[in-house]
Amino acid sequence: MIVAILFILLGAVLAVFAPALFVLFFGLFGSDTEAMGFMGYFSKYVSYYDSIMLVLLFVALVSAVFRSLRNNVTIPVRKKLVLSIVTMIVMMLSVVLFFVLNRAEGSLVVRSLKAITIYGPAIFVIWILEPITFKNGKSLLFKYLFVQCAIAFAIIYLTRIGINFWNNFNSGYYNGAYYYTNEYNDMVALPSNFYLVFSNSKNENFLRAAQFHNSNGLGFAAATFMFLTLEKAFVEQKKIINKILLVFLAVLAFLLWCNSETKGVIVGILIGAFVYIFKGTINNRGALKASTVLLITGMCALIPVIAYLIFNEGDVLFSTIISSLDSRDGLMKTLFDNFGEFFLLGNGGNLDEAVSRNIDPHFLPFRIYIMYGIGAAVLTFILCFVSPIRLMFNKAAKSIYCITLLSIAVFVGSTNNLTAVALFWIILAEAFLEVCRAEKDDVEELPTQKKKFINFCWE
């Protein structure tokens, strides 16, 4: 209990004085998606631990907005801020009106908080407003994912050598997903057997989630970290020893991903790399060459695996794809059979009801439509799909880091909803900030008079 209370007190201090750092803290210890294991464990000792973390996230949002009043918020950030605030207001109003008109059961306060902080872009707003993220966002994201993956590695692998402490934070013990526990299946992905991840229609060999609420969250974090380590190794780092260490981390991240087989994030990485390579505005030949080498190396590494699967496991491989598409198709059909029921106000933010009725499609705007109605769904679609795709082809989106983060966000939102809430909103915000950084750098390279004029317009 003492540790849980200390975590709450630390979270309160960060929420007020360092909102961006609280977002990382929330992702590690307070979210019911990427920190289900910790939330479940601490909830045994402190009632309403999850609700307290939601309140603190709301406090962090308010703190970030008020702190931004002392800073010059640029026009691009201001536009995103307005869109985000309008989205959160529409979501909250839909919940309030639904409760008033239908006398709904449940907690109006909790559902309103979730509408703002989880399904609404509260984390996105915090990240784009805080000065520390503009300066050090990339480093913070890397360190955050390093810690997440280190915890996941400890939960999955250290128990195999008798170190059981981290197994206390296995989400399978707290969300009813017994199939994520060692008692159900103690197989894990190793260098000697990782290819088996492709040989079952539902990844029955290595089904793991670690501290995440399901295996999709683990795969999302692991694959994103794998991309960041490879990007650092081949684009940023000059020293051979640093490259070797980063590639080693990438291999470990790949093994973590094999325990989940989340496909959307891998597709996002590959599409992002292709867009970067073939984008007409790229002038940096060094970065382009490094990215090309990175992509070709990855593709060549997969060729033997793909060939083996096609010739030896062809039926299973294709049934995996068909099974995934069939399940989503079924959810879509169920949604459209009940489409009119949710049009104006949704169902008051009641996700459990949607899941129980099998009408929760794995496409973020449709989930928002079910929970909050058409207005919130359209705004979410603009913020999470239209805007990122437009940014991918913005002249200032020059780096593979920026383009691939945008691509990951789009494909994860298209296939797995908010499978890791903090990470999803962070990478969306971080990619947007990377465009802002590039635009600011472009201004710095202009002659003095033009620079003064553009800085005036920017601010």
Topology overview:
Elements (H helix, E strand, L loop, with lengths): L1 H16 L1 H11 L6 H8 L5 H20 L6 H28 L5 H10 L4 H8 L1 H27 L57 H22 L3 H19 L4 H16 L6 H28 L1 H24 L13 H6 L7 H9 L1 H19 L7 H16 L5 H24 L3 H11 L1
Helix pairs in contact: 1-2, 1-4, 2-4, 4-6, 4-7, 5-6, 5-7, 5-16, 7-18, 8-9, 8-18, 9-10, 9-11, 9-12, 9-17, 11-12, 11-17, 12-13, 15-16, 16-17, 17-18
**Topology, number of strands:** 0
Distance between the amino and carboxyl termini: 47 Å
Helix content: over 70%
Shape: globular
Structural class: mainly alpha
Major sheet characteristics: none
| SS summary, helix count | 19
Strand residue percentage: under 5%
C-alpha Rg (nearest Å): 22 Å
Describe it for me?
The chain has 459 residues and is mostly helical. The chain has helices spanning 2-17, 19-29, 36-43, 49-68, 75-102, 108-117, 122-129, 131-157, 215-236, 240-258, 263-278, 285-312, 314-337, 351-356, 364-372, 374-392, 400-415, 421-444, 448-458.
Summarize the structure.
Helix content is 70%, strand content 0%. With 459 residues, it is mostly helical.
Using brief descriptors, characterize the structure shown:
459 residues, mainly alpha, 70% helix, globular, disordered C terminus
